[in-house]
Design goal:
Shape: elongated
Structural class: alpha/beta
Strand content: 15-25%
Strand order of the largest sheet: 2-1-3-4-5
Order of helices and strands: EHEHEHEHEHEEEEHEHHEE
Helix content: 40-55%
Number of strands: 12
Radius of gyration: 19 Å
Largest sheet: 5 strands, parallel
Length: about 230
């Protein structure tokens, strides 16, 4: 999953990004309300961590504008205040949860899983499609019958996670670039083809019948070849 952190304390933002990376999240950071709002509106994030005290536009204003624009991405508010009225204001504007500083990283991660589950992003230790199993904790794939497995690189893991969370859908090259490399990244579309090729090789290596199928001029989708065909 891809998480946007909108937090003006650089040290805290770095700590959060590092901790989330260890949990196999992809993170982007923004350090003021205006930039955070623009990044959030790209719609590429599965959850947003939003501080209240921000320069240029405070967290309440960012939250209100995002919800007025009908953005439904789950939002976890961070605040140094514990007053009930502040929390009620955030919930009234559309926040999904609140966390008061200081907090434990484990609690933050648990709350992220909780708010994403409410949006239908159900988390388990693995994702399955056909005979393919993606282990979310170990960044590996396994053929479920033979138990042959192989470790994935970061981009390969993110690609397969994206496909497995969007089964039976065509994902465009543009969506892949935005989700994995980021909205403002200069990654070219041939990067997508390179990592698709790497991932296909690993699917073949474990003997999986799952294929990444190219839809000419559009993008890619997963397909499962029947056992007699492989």
């Amino acid at each position: 999953m891809r998480i946007l952190i909108i937090e003006d304390e650089f040290s805290l933002s770095d700590v959060l990004a590092a901790a989330l990376k260890k949990e196999n999240f992809v993170t982007d950071c923004s350090y003021d309300g205006e930039d955070g709002y623009l990044q959030a509106m790209t719609g590429i994030y599965d959850a947003i961590i939003l501080d209240i005290m921000l320069p240029k536009m405070n967290g309440y204003e960012v939250l209100q504008k995002l919800r007025m624009e009908k953005l439904q991405t789950p939002i976890l508010m961070l605040t140094a205040k514990s007053e009930l009225d502040d929390k009620i204001q955030g919930f009234d504007l559309g926040a999904d949860d609140y966390l008061t500083k200081p907090f434990e990283i484990r609690e933050l991660i648990a709350r992220i899983w909780a708010i994403t589950r409410r949006q239908g992003i159900v988390e388990t230790s693995a994702l399955r499609y056909g005979d393919l199993e993606l282990n979310l904790n170990q960044c590996s794939i396994t053929q479920v019958h033979s138990r042959q497995s192989v470790q994935l690189g970061s981009k390969e893991f993110q690609l397969l996670e994206l496909f497995l969370r969007n089964q039976n859908q065509i994902i465009t090259r543009e969506q892949i670039v935005e989700k994995i490399w980021g909205y403002e990244n200069n990654a070219e579309y041939n990067n997508v083809e390179v990592y698709i090729s790497f991932t296909r090789r690993k699917l073949n290596f474990i003997g999986s019948g799952v294929r990444i199928k190219a839809i000419r001029g559009i993008g890619y989708t997963l397909e499962q070849i029947q056992s007699e065909e492989y």
